[in-house]
Amino acid sequence: MRLVSLRLVSSFAFVPIMTMSIPATNIPARNMPVVRPGIVMASRTASQKLNIGEGKLLSFNPTVEPIDLAALKKAEEQKVKAAAIDEYFRTRKMPLEGQGLKMVLEAEKNDLDWRLLAAIAVRESTGGKYACRKAENNPFGWGSCRIGFETMEEAIEVVAKNLGGNNPKTERHYADKETKEILRAYNPPSIVPRYAEEVLNIMNVMGPLEYITEVATL
Questions:
Q1: Residues 108-129, mean pLDDT to the nearest whole number
Q2: Which long-range contacts (CB under 8 A, 24 or more apart) does 35-41 make?
Q3: pTM over 0.90
Q4: Given 44, 65, 86, which residue is the final one in a domain?
Q5: Of the candidates 4, 29, 119, 171, which lies 20 to 30 Å from 17 by C-alpha distance?
């Protein structure tokens, strides 16, 4: 009797394998199914060695890639910040509830304080309650209410890009500035004397600048 050792490294999904032993004697030659080695599919992120030998059961030796704790921590912090924004909107019955995560992600992408977009929307339109009438989906008062957007998500993206100094047409107003200076450029003190301070106060009510999140692992 010849022993067969199979080592299969697969690449998609684990397929359970059933094994059973059959006595070598008294087996009819006719109508006996022929068993051929198949292909075992496994996860792209894990490889398995299947060892089959005489008198041995099938054994699995998985190798799993390490968990990216930094990415998990970042995702959890984004959720916490988004929840803080949406809770602020919800308790005040503001239409922008549900846009928290989009605001957090766009602020992060453009190196802005995560609370800035939401606080401006509160100051300008009471969180979307009194958005620009002649410009659709514009709760920020952007462009003196003369510019509309196809969706609220587009409005968030455009305003974040500009305030982050990433639009060549407006970067001279906002690039390389701290939050207070961004607000003073957005609505100068000569027009609304305490605009920046009012928005900063709203931001502080929403939550602290930094959240420390611990990610539990097994």
A1: 98
A2: 37/6, 39/8, 39/10, 40/8, 40/10, 40/14, 40/15, 41/10, 41/11, 41/12, 41/13, 41/14, 41/15
A3: no
A4: 65
A5: 29
